[in-house]
Amino acid sequence: MRELLRPVIVAPMAGGPSTPELVSGAAEAGAVGFLAAGYLAPATVESQVRSVSASGHPYGLNVFVPAPRPADVPALERYREVLRAEAERYEVDLPALRLDDDDHFAAKVELAVTYRVPMVSFTFGVPDRSVIRALRAAGCATLVTVTSADEARRALAAGPDALIAQAGTAGGHSATTSPAHHRGKTRAKDILAAVRATTALPVIVAGGVASAPDVGSLLAEGAAAVQCGTAFLLADEAATRAPHRAAITSGAYRETVVTRAFTGQPARALRNRFTDAYSAVAPVGYPAVHHLTAPIRAAAARRGDAGALNLWAGTGHAHTRPGPVATLIANLLAEPR
Asked: pLDDT tens digits, residue range 77-132?
């Protein structure tokens, strides 16, 4: 496992930013990139895996573990009614509640096995031991994302090769399996120490990392690698939407918040009109809420309206800069002067 890792890992960023070009560029620059299988059709995932695997560099694929069926359907129905004002604002129809969606989990795992993807990481839960065994038999190293020591112990029971310790400062979705109680308060240094105390396996840390001193400090604290996502949202090779890029570079969005408003799963984003209006009333219910808000977000993106977009970003977003992924990686690995 350790031979596959590099000091910096470019995090999987589902919903667009992660591309084969970003992952391949990261590998050529001495880092490791992860493709994001989330939300994509298996055929698209296969195309991306084929593209990246042709380079011969180590890389990874991130897969969402299917969420349990939402327990509080009436709360989702109430939220759907609340969102009618947004649907009217953007002239879209709200879809019916979609309570079952495994994001083609089995098909994506099978693709990883078929193509012998070097590293496969999981988010939103712990895969069954049989999944881990099948991947290992194919030569794939497996990683599970956790947000606490308790989650780490549950993940270790499945037999992964490494853990990803995600702090509350991380941008985008939290991997927490207790979404009703997540507040995003943990820091990278603290979650790294807590998870390392549970295992001798390699522990990768993520959350709010924005500079070379951040990376150096966490490596010195024992991280096997440091995973960064927000730092690469403006990379030339990333497919981050134009309104999202503009929001980050504008300086107008100074604060991040943890919200369930867009997807029903806690996620850290730049504070905007939508987070202000709906964070307090949004229920737990991923991916049902994701499907409810999808047409609103798509319409807002077409209009270039960042006010209703999920502007995922970690607490270090103010340091994010545009440029080739190789330059961004070099900046994160720069020696202190």
From this structure: 999 999 999 999 999 999 999 999 999 999 999 999 999 999 999 999 999 999 99
The answer to whether the predicted template modeling score (pTM) of the entire model surpasses 0.90 is yes
* 207-238 residue pLDDT tens: 999 899 999 999 999 999 999 999 999 999 99
Question: Who contacts 94 (Cβ-Cβ below 8 Å, separation ≥6)?
Answer: 80, 83, 84, 87, 292, 295
Assess whether 55 and 147 both reside in one domain: yes
Residue 297 belongs to some domain of the structure: yes
Which residue, 317, 314, 210, is CA-closest to 268?
A: 314
Domain interval for residue 192: 2-66+102-238+319-332
25 and 50 co-located in one domain: yes
What is the C-alpha separation between 120 and 296, in angstroms, rounded?
Answer: 32
Q: Are 143 and 162 in contact (CB under 8 A)?
A: yes
Report yes or no on 27 lying in a domain.
yes
